[in-house]
Design brief:
alpha+beta; transmembrane; elongated; Membrane protein YdfJ; 4-stranded antiparallel beta sheet; 3-stranded antiparallel beta sheet; disordered C terminus; 792 residues; single chain; Multidrug efflux transporter AcrB transmembrane fold; cell membrane
Amino acid sequence: MAKLLYRLGSSAYRKKWIFLAFWLVLLIAITTFAGLFSKPTSSSFSIPGLDSVVTMEKMQERFPDAEDATSAPSGSVVVQAPEGRTLTDPEIMAEVNAMLDEVRATGVIQDPETVVDPVTAAQGLAAQMTPALEAQGTPAEKIAADIAALSPLSPDEATGIISFTFDAESAMDIATEDMEAVTAILDEYDEGELTVVYNGNAFGAAATSLNMTSELIGLLVAAVVLIITFGSFIAAGMPLISAIIGVGIGIMGIQLATAFTDSVNDMTPALASMIGLAVGIDYALFIVSRFRNELIRQSGSNDLEPKELAQRIRDMDVSTRAHAMGMAVGTAGSAVVFAGMTVLIALVALSIINIPFLTVMALAAAVTVAVAVLVALTFLPALLGLLGTKIFAARVPGPRVPDPEDEKPTMGLLWVRRIRKRPIAHLAVGVILLGLIAIPAASMRLAMPTDGTATPGTAPRIAYDMTADAFGPGRNAPMIALVDTTEVPEQERPLVFGQAVEQFLNTDGVLNAQVAQTTENFDTAQILITPEFDAIDEQTSETLSILRAEAADFEAETGANYGITGVTPIYDDISDRLGEVLVPYILIVLVLAFLVLLLVFRSIWVPLIAALGFGLSVAATFGATVAIFQEGWFGIIDDPQPLLSFLPIMLIGLVFGLAMDYQIFLVTRMREGFTKGKTAGNATSNGFKHGARVVTAAALIMISVFAAFMAQDMSFIKTMGFALAVAVFFDAFIVRMMIIPATMYLLGDKAWWLPKWLDRILPNVDVEGEGLHELNEERTRELKEHAGVGAS
């Protein structure tokens, strides 16, 4: 593989225009098609086969008018009168009706005549329900409770809910201009005396738009790190340009995919942008850094002043620089390929879990990473070829940081010498520190994103909180019990429905239960259940579990069966499913990590300690994230919430890839030294010396890119940005730069032990580029013959 990559890198350097044109045309083409055919992303999270989803599908069969609660193009507008007044005041009613007149006039609402103000709707509801329930002999207290559970007007008459449905197939099919037409009206009235906010499926996309602030902040910090690393403004810009091209193609590809599938979630572009930008910069950094080292080697000296080095590079012919580029891609590029493969494996493995929206998110991120690898291997060398001898020009003034190729000891070498003196102490400190940080992970709670987890101050969150305050928290978490009485004699069915209502009312955590709708022959009924607590409260999940646990006894007693569905049960089931697959997925990833590293390093112990180190960094990351975002430690987060259900499993996949990146880039240099005859200890020191600087720069870049995404409004992206940032910190600086070298020193030669039978059957992937040494030596002999070592 190293020789193949050598030819690819040198060819891209020489035939730069072909490679540059290919990527630029591709970017322009994908951007154009995405602009013409892309559709809005989805805010739906659904998993086929869940009890709640099966019940929802059954309900839609029995009640054709029933909509999928997670994707219906419906929304709610919450209006609140000024303090001291009510919505029944004539002036306030007139203002609400004027607003609704304008909304109806847009022509984008289904059945506009049914959209009325909360006071009128509440009065009509009471007038309709009271006689019907009295005729059934329902007690007055139960009648009042049933009406209150459905009323769009709060008991104090100060807050009201107006529900309507857009004229579209689903929430993601609502045209942007239709959404803007309605929200503009609502926002205008919110600026007056009324408080007007909105939430629900229809308004989800408007509340979760992605801005570019995070990318810009991440790029700015990355630029600073790269300038310090290379000491050149021009060289620092190369990884940034490469990453931007890769991420641009990836994001536009995701937008274009919305034209062919409705499974692209609104969080997918942000996640792909986050991981693509980070790995894109890092992979380019590794190659440019190795290219610089190869140019220094070709110059004939490892300790030249910047001006002398720049002159030597200017004097090199194209073939010499192309050879250096080929060597860089053949060595560092090989590591990039395997590092990228580890990220791809971890992401693609998420599809094994068979959760559609998670699979799409993972595959989108995987494609973006694959593009980043290809761009780093082809576009970057072509870009460097375009700059020619000016690549390391425009040097940064100030003292020069020692290079790994210099005779002077680097910071990395000084640090690893300290570890070599006290390996046990450094190993113990690293393990204990990460273990302590991991403790809060034991209390981790998971929940799906709802309006209740939205950023405080946004319209969905304000609407959610206003509804909870005015109507009770359970109004935000309605459930529907679908009672099937097909096996019950027809004359007994109404009694069974009443028995079901009575059973639900006697269940802990249920505030109200009432029959909402029945089929004509009474073979099925929808029973609306209003819990006491909100959608993300643990007690609501407990209530749901109790309701389901009682289903068997209910069927044995009545012959009827029921299932529970609705947004809250569906999201609760998704959280449970993700929690169930978390441990199996961790085991899959750990096994994959071991196998990939076994192939790369041809050692039993190196993959084992790498995988265990990954487990430590992930556990510590969970602990830190739970402590700050769920438990609210240190007051950093003023709105602690359960972690989003799919965050842990996505985090594991991404951190696995990043951890293996650092392991490969750091330890391949150690193995390279060991195979060339150095003692195990010296090989560890020398490999750390050469790899520490670039891995440190890469880690700082990733930390800055991920941390910048904490500025996003989406809680998942905010939390994921923090979690990835601390994960990179823990894994790069504690695991890879302290625990791994300490363990390597303790193991000595045993670190590279591999059974002979296994050594024979394992393919040689040549990540270190051993196959290029002969080619490099031949090139060096040619240089000596034609110009001499010190020629200028």
